[in-house]
Specification:
This protein has two helices and 23 strands. The chain is mostly beta strands. The protein has a seven-stranded antiparallel β-sheet, with helices on one face. It is flat, with a radius of gyration of 27 Å. The mean pLDDT is 91.
């Protein structure tokens, strides 16, 4: 009999090591093969001196999530919610242990994985599959607090909703509520603002200019609390980034910033016109210049937003919105950020400063 002695539980973060250990009662065993449906060849492993096998699922599962990188490729629906693929997946595998004469097999082993990562001091929230893909304000996978800047695209993601389940979102400040239905067993994106219209302007689920207490239920069962702070009448530089929890975070930075352009000469060539002193011009000429534009930005954030901004500094995908005014339809484009993150945990308010590095400028070159 094959027994798994160390397992992985819950919807497991795919960018963390995912070691499983197993042992077998088969006598004189020599090796084991782990079969994964997506791979033609089985993975062969050997036991240690105590007869225990060790296998890390991380690399074979991570490859399944790499097709779109970290880009947000979900097309915006006509409604306000949508099931989407690419962040949640299941992995089936079978284990066969051999000796020189026979073998035994363990089948039916299925694991759930998610496109996220956990740090050493963080835990996997196993009790709520409708958790929001962002920092949990009470570190419990149930309570969340987000800031929403009205007139800019804003959404939040729920980890996994089963196909056919009905999501109910109720604003406890106003008692208004709405329902959405999952069309597949995947993550679910809830759109609050599309940049040109939002819940409030369409009277779908009006959001007040205060902290709105949103209650999320799935098939009538309470799952998640979201304290959504709405900020109106604002302009600035709006960033979106892939966060550690597998979703996307948003924040609007102050509208006044420092715009900086730097240059680097690519090459020079001789420019000998065979002139003497008095008529001699420059002996060389520049073939082209590499130009880089950056914005030095800042924002004053509270303790909750400070925690959300932490993942910005390690995110593999950061995008800047092309419009700096609310209710202007723009596009997202990739940028880099530069700077160090520091905050005094004793203070409720902290100033965050860093540079947004825009794509390389297109310059004339020989």
């Amino acid at each position: 009999m094959i027994t798994i002695t160390q397992d992985i539980n819950g919807i497991y973060p795919v960018y963390n090591d995912s070691y499983i250990k197993f042992e077998s009662t088969l006598s004189a065993q020599t090796y084991a093969e782990i079969t994964v449906p997506e791979y033609t060849n089985a993975f062969k492993v050997y036991p240690d001196l105590d007869g225990e096998y060790l296998f890390n699922l991380k690399e074979i599962v991570k490859a399944k999530f790499n097709s779109n990188g970290f880009a947000d490729t979900i097309s915006q629906p006509t409604g306000w919610g949508k099931s989407f693929t690419g962040t949640y997946d299941t992995q089936d595998l079978s284990i066969k242990v051999y000796n020189n004469a026979t073998s035994e097999t363990l089948t039916g082993t299925t694991y759930e994985f998610f496109k996220s990562v956990k740090q050493i001091d963080e835990e996997i929230y196993t009790g709520n599959t409708a958790q929001i893909l962002n920092v949990s304000s009470n570190d419990n996978g149930i309570d969340y607090a987000l800031t929403y800047f009205e007139g800019y695209p804003f959404s939040f993601d729920l980890q996994r909703i089963t196909s056919g389940e009905v999501i109910n979102i109720k604003n406890l400040n106003t008692t208004d509520d709405v329902t959405m239905t999952a069309t597949s067993t995947d993550s679910f994106k809830v759109y609050v603002d599309k940049g040109s219209s939002n819940w409030t302007t369409t009277s779908y689920l009006p959001i007040m200019d205060i902290v709105n207490r949103l209650e999320i239920k799935v098939d009538g069962v309470f799952k998640t609390n979201l304290r959504l702070r709405r900020v109106e009448n604002c302009n600035g530089l709006y960033l979106k980034w892939f966060n550690n929890d597998g979703g996307y975070s948003y924040y609007l930075f102050e509208e006044f910033y420092t715009d900086r352009i730097s240059r680097r000469v690519l090459n020079t060539i001789a420019n000998n016109s065979f002139n003497n002193v008095g008529s001699l011009q420059s002996p060389t000429k520049v073939t082209g210049v590499e130009g880089t534009q950056s914005y030095n930005v800042k924002a004053v954030v509270d303790a909750n937003d400070r925690k959300i901004l932490e993942s910005l500094y390690t995110s593999p995908s950061v995008q800047l919105y092309s419009k700096q005014e609310a209710y202007q339809v723009g596009t997202w484009f990739d940028v880099q950020i530069s700077g160090n993150y520091s905050a005094a945990t004793k203070k409720n308010k902290n100033e965050v400063r860093f540079s947004i590095i825009l794509p390389e400028l297109i310059t004339p070159r020989l």
